[in-house]
Amino acid sequence: MRVTLRNPKQGVSDKEIAALEARLGARLPEDYKAFLGIHNGSVPETNVFKVNAVRDSGVNQFIPFKDLLRQRALVADAPAGKTLPIAWAEGGNLVCLDLRNGDAILFWDHEDPEHPTLLARGFDRFVELLHPFDVLSMKLKPGRVRRP
Fold it and tell me: How far apart are CA 8 and CA 78, in angstroms?
């Protein structure tokens, strides 16, 4: 893991996960279940990950287990309704687990809800995409910065 996680909630038991899987009618990936047992609801340090060749985002917080179904209900009518939101991303967006293809991690953009973007195959691989954000790494194009 490249970023530090802090403020985890109480870990989730196997029994609680089994009950969620029964409600979802889908199995959760083993790596995500292990994460819930240790890092449930964790807040990562300020981070960045690539959504595509021209866009970055960051994870604000991994959604606590107790809030997963409520968050899923918010996107139930969109293609993301076949997903389980697992993290709140920058700008009101979500990182989701595809319930039809359990290892696919998707980026759900609230401004383009019909077209989620594949981020990684596997939860552990997604977490490895998170890099600490360094403001000094920002590259500004000439003419894009104006003085007041």
Answer: 29
